[in-house]
Amino acid sequence: MSFDPAITLFSCHYTSQQSCSEEGKELEQLGFPESINLVRMPCTGKLQVRTLLQAFEDGADGVYVVGCPVVGCHNAKGSERAAKRVEVVRSALEELGVEGGRVQMYHLPRGLHPEFVEKGKEMENRIRDLGPSPFKS
Amino acid sequence: MIIAERKPMAEILEMVEDCEKVLVLACRGCVTVCSAGGEREADILSSLIRLGMKKAGKSIEVSTASLVRQCDREYVAEIDQWDGEYDAIVSTACGVGVNFISNLRKDTMVYPALNTTFFGGSAEQGEWTEQCAGCGDCVLHLTGGLCPVARCAKSLMNGPCGGSVDGRCEIRKDVECIWQSIHDRLGSFDRSAQMEVIAPIRDWSTAGHGGPRKVVRDDLTV
What three-state secondary structure class fits B32? Predict the structure, then answer.
């Protein structure tokens, strides 16, 4: 099924620096999917389960988080905490009979790296394959 | 504290499937401390109920509130402010809270969001272990402060049973043989002889086998 997905990305300042480059145009120039709504935050450790669920309530077909590598998080354990909360949401989605793959955690290097765009494309492809969120029906 | 865990969502959604408006009511007592039914968890549950109902093609209005505790009359009385506003309350308190609301508010339908599991303590961050069975006849002064009722799989009063290996219980390797620990702890206080004392056959009526229990303190009643 072809559709235009709505994807929400929560990312820390350190792993999403590309969004600030070239007057904020670098991501677009590198082909970062337009379907992704980027929410930057000081640290993904700040993310709460409730915030991730709210993104689904607000109509996201998929939600993902990009934080620092597990070893070397700028705030020591921030991205590790975020990963745990993503797992809580994944498990809750599965309890509701919804694909757990609609929520995902990525640990990426800080700074300007091609992986940030690659993972965005990967997430968009995954959500396209899964189709619209069952919460929208 | 009382330890509890959220019920499976399928069970909770079945409870509220015919409701149009529900109040998820958190408790700021024990279940907040064990991260099962405090304001944060109630907020998460509200979201999950909305999402689950949406997926089922139904609409539901879910609000969240909290009480200091749901096990005291004066705090439960606060639910009167929502009289008639909701089809049901989904309580994230322990079973005591759900019972108290049912006892005191005959017109309020209340559902349990949690499975109440045991009296325990926080062993590590995010890990709780059973420590007390509330049996009503404490023997901790005889067992080095370690409870054989709650922490021995067989609740033996004259243990160990012989099934333990290397200090671990035969039911699971991650369970310590509490009688081994009692032995070791008594020994460290030079009180190993206490292990030789045969505990008499126990009267379990204080443990709930004699029906629901009640404590009345005359000095506190007026």
Answer: helix
Residue with tokens 């509701």: A96
Residues B44, B24: Cα–Cα separation, whole Å: 10
Give the pLDDT mean for A98-120: 93
Cis peptide before A109 (omega within 30 of 0): no
Co-location of B111 and B138 in the same domain: no
Residue type, B82: W
pLDDT, mean over chain A: 93
- Report the alpha-carbon distance of residue B185 to residue B174 in Å, rounded: 19
Mean pLDDT by 10 residues, chain B (222 residues): 98 98 98 98 98 97 98 96 96 98 94 98 96 97 97 96 95 96 98 95 92 95 89
The pLDDT, as a whole number, for residue A110 is 86
The pLDDT score that the predictor gives to residue A34 is: 93
Phi, psi of B123 (to 5 degrees): -75, -40
Strands B2-6 and B114-124: antiparallel
Calpha distance B105→B79 (Å, rounded): 9
Mean pLDDT for chain B overall: 96
Cα–Cα distance, A45 to A42 (Å, whole number): 9
Q: B139: domain range?
A: 133-207
Contact check, Cβ <8 Å, B44/A53? yes
DSSP A58-83: TT-SEEEEEE--STTBTTBSHHHHHH
| Single pTM value for the model | 0.94
List the one residue out of B16, B26, B22 whose CA is nearest residue B85.
B22
Structure tokens at A11: 């990312």
* Residue of A96, A136, A137 with shortest CB distance to B48: A96
Residue B125 included in any domain: no
Contacts of A54 in chain B (CB under 8 A): 47
Q: Do B9 and A96 touch (CB under 8 A)?
A: yes
Q: In angstroms, what separates the C-alpha of B55 from chain A's closest C-alpha?
A: 5
pLDDT of A1 over the 60 cut: no
Q: Which fold has domain A7-130?
A: Rossmann fold (3.40.50)
pLDDT, residue A17, reads: 79
